[in-house]
């Protein structure tokens, strides 16, 4: 089998795993609230739930589409299913997958890259599960003995440092593109009242457009 | 019993761990299935089995840093939405900020404040509906549309492999540019974390890691710690 056929086969079985698991998880996520309402007979009026849903969609709705589209290139097919079910995509899944591609010297779009990012994301899911579970068991106790500045540092700056590190690593490969990738959202946030989703869209596609021009002109390769 | 203690007691009911565990279990099952698929494919294309193993290790190790952040955020979240729900929402789909805003929106739809005396069990139900409905947005979209995203990428790349590599990096740069812009706007402390995180990662990758490639696997964690030290140091200095 050649690379193309192998990739096709990989995609087919990835979809077979990902589609049902993500959709089933969307449904089973309602089990706790259904239990709550049945057990304590506290069903809220349908209209109140719809109001809440409306407010939710107004705040997050556009991200349901924009995020999967924007992250797809770095997560790959199986990575998208895994990433959106397990969450923490920007601060955990993509940095882990990107570093794993780097360490194993895999080229995006190849079958090796798909395997590598899948395995890296699976590894990070296990670490995250250990962290959340131990937070339940020993969280309070650990937090009470940790010095305040460490807690403060982790809550306020951990994400910022990881975002910076991941960006820096990509930026060394394409510094010319990186300038625009940072300038576009900063300018949009400063001078427009665009929603988060619109800023993401403009940034990702704007950067893509500029990268395309530079690629055509041979500035990046 | 007053509403605050009732809501707190119900949201920490032991059976909830089991009910929330169902979905956490599905996420674990999905990861297990993908690992099995990767293993099969590795054998089929006779890829060196050391490669996926290494990738798995990179994921396991590099996630420690961000997972510590999740750990701490979760302890905070447990106080406002209860243990089982925090564990559930942060093990899958969620980020703390998203879940808290969904819980707040639920309260808002009832016309009350989250955690107040007027926040009844019914309001709790609205909050939980809001969280589940919000998560479903991403899950249903990716569940249904991911194959089309692949076609979209193929279409934009036009079959040019070199361009596909640039395209992937450009998309990542775009999304991380956006995330960093958000941090930079938060203030000097966060800006320092972004800049020192980025500079230390670049330096690590291009100097020490070139000499000791094994260290690459830890680079993200090291860069994170350096970034945090500088930011926290700055905070201490101006205090």
Topology:
The complex is a heterodimer of chains A (221) and B (239).
Chain A: H1 3-28, H2 31-40, H3 46-86, H4 89-103, H5 111-145, H6 148-173, H7 175-191, H8 196-216
Chain B: H1 3-11, H2 14-44, H3 50-62, H4 64-81, H5 83-91, H6 96-109, H7 121-157, H8 161-186, H9 188-206, H10 208-211, H11 219-238
Helix pairs in contact in B: 2-5, 4-5, 6-7, 7-8, 8-9, 9-11
Would you give an account of this structure?
The complex is a heterodimer of chains A (221) and B (239). Chain A is mainly alpha-helical and 221 residues long. In chain A, 86% of the residues lie in helices and 0% in strands. Chain A is built from eight helices and no strands. Chain A starts with a helix and ends in a 5-residue tail after the last helix. By secondary structure, chain B is an all-alpha fold. Chain B starts with a helix and ends with a helix. At the A-B interface, α1, α2, α3, α4 and α5 of A face α2, α3, α4, α5 and α6 of B.
Which runs of chain A of at least 5 residues are low in confidence (pLDDT < 50)? none
What is the percent of helical residues of chain A? over 70%
CA radius of gyration of chain B is 22 Å
Give the total of domains of chain B: 2
Calculate the mean pLDDT score of chain A and round it. 91
Shape, principal axes of CA atoms of chain A? globular
Main β-sheet description of chain A: none
Q: Strand fraction band of chain B?
A: under 5%
Mean pLDDT value of chain B = 90
Oligomer: heterodimer
Please identify the structural class of chain B as seen in this structure: mainly alpha
Q: Please state the structural category of chain A.
A: mainly alpha
Number of helices of chain A: 8
Outline the low-pLDDT stretches of chain B: none
H/E element string of chain B? HHHHHHHHHHH
Strand content of chain A: under 5%
Q: Helix and strand string of chain A, N-terminal first?
A: HHHHHHHH
